[in-house]
Amino acid sequence: MLIQTSLPAEMLCLEITESALMDDPELAHTHLLALARLGVKLSIDDYGAGNASLSYVRTLPVHELKIDRSFITQVDQQRKSAAIVRSTIVLCRELGLSVVAEGVETASELDWLKINHCDLVQGFGIGRPMPVHELYGWLEITHAGPQER
């Protein structure tokens, strides 16, 4: 695909779900290392929803963790979810990874994530899926910066 499109590898970020990693951890590790050697960026999606241990995650050549929306829903109101999300943000910072909060649906969730220094957010509270031709107008209206996707 990279050859066919002439896309520089470092411009491609592939997401793999935490549960897919755990289907065959050794094979996943081998393939992720090969992709990383090409320069492809890697993201673990739905982090926290599967069974990946922290010791396994630290061996992976990933650039980003996407926190599963089950932890983000009402993060501003649920003490246990808040503790998990806050510690994941700190962990990512210490490991040099970006952290994305998935499923942000309310302004109060977004505010909580900003206060707790979450790198990136996504969800219907930010914007609904849209064709690219609508994106530019949406960006002008909302003044959304590059940190909200």
Describe the model.
The protein is an alpha/beta fold and 149 residues long. It has one domain: Alpha-Beta Barrel (TIM Barrel). It is built from 8 helices and 5 strands. It has a 5-stranded parallel sheet. Strand 2, helix 4 and strand 3 form a beta-alpha-beta unit. The longest helix is centred in the middle third of the chain and has 17 residues. The protein is globular, with a radius of gyration of 16 Å. The model has no long low-confidence stretch (mean pLDDT 90). GO terms for molecular function: cyclic-guanylate-specific phosphodiesterase activity. It holds the Pfam family EAL.
**Whole-angstrom Rg:** 16 Å
Spatial strand order of the main sheet: 1-2-3-4-5
SSE sequence, one letter per element: HEHHEHEHHEHEH
Q: Name the shape in a single word.
A: globular
Overall pLDDT metric: 90
Task: Classify the beta-strand content into a percent band.
Answer: 5-15%
The structural domain count equals: 1
Strands, count: 5
CATH topology: TIM Barrel
Distance between the termini: 24 Å
Biggest sheet details? 5 strands, parallel
* Alpha plus pi helix count: 8
Give the CATH H-level superfamily. EAL domain
- Helical percentage: 40-55%
Assign the structural class, choosing from mainly alpha, mainly beta, alpha/beta, alpha+beta, or little secondary structure.
alpha/beta
Low-confidence stretches: none
Domain EAL: 1-143
Organism: Pseudomonas kielensis
GO molecular function, one term: cyclic-guanylate-specific phosphodiesterase activity
Protein name: EAL domain-containing protein
